Amino acid sequence: MKLRAFIIISVMIMIPIRMHAMEHSIGIGAHISNFKASDAQEGKTFIGGHIRARLAGGFGLEASIDYREDTYITDVQQTTIKSVPLLFSATIELLHRSPVTPYFLGGGGWYFTKIDMKTEFFDIHDDQTKFGWHLGGGVIIKPSSRLAVHADYRYTSVDFELQRFKFDAAGRMLTGGVTFYF
Length: 182
Prior knowledge:
The chain starts with a helix and ends with a strand. The strands form 2 sheets. The protein has an 8-stranded antiparallel β-barrel. It has a two-stranded antiparallel ribbon with strand order 9-10. The protein has one domain (25-181): Porin (Beta Barrel). The chain has one helix at 2-22, and strands at residues 26-37, 44-54, 59-66, 68-73, 77-93, 100-119, 123-144, 147-157, 159-162, 165-168, 171-181. It has 1 helix and 11 strands; from the N terminus they run αβββββββββββ. With 182 residues, it is mainly beta. The radius of gyration is 22 Å and the shape is elongated. 22% of the residues are buried. It is 12% helix and 69% strand. The longest helix is centred in the N-terminal third of the chain and has 21 residues, at 2-22.
């Protein structure tokens, strides 16, 4: 009887503690990024949105979506690549209990892409979906349990082909954003 009462009381105590620990673990936010492909003349700034989940021990998950456009110009052609990357990342915060913590992230995603190439002799238009990888790190500032601000650097790796032309869309992405947790 005492064992049963102990188990029941323990469970009744642990459920609210566990629920409190899970409080504010899902967040939604917006970010601004600057992406520069390796072959691009300049970087492009764009906006996007993300969902983040805080898991135990500083581990987390992120899903993000953006819109970006890059133009490559040479003497003989102009190529415009419009991309909507849908990325999924695993994150690890090194000091997850601290209000300021460095973190690492890595993952993959699908790049829904439209390529337009124009030359003096022909125009080519193509839609593609490619998978690519990314890896990076940054810092998170948590002024409260419901708010986090982050800044990070990501290296992305994805290639596109259009007939006999190949585009290396790998590059760097600098991102800053805010996440509201509920």
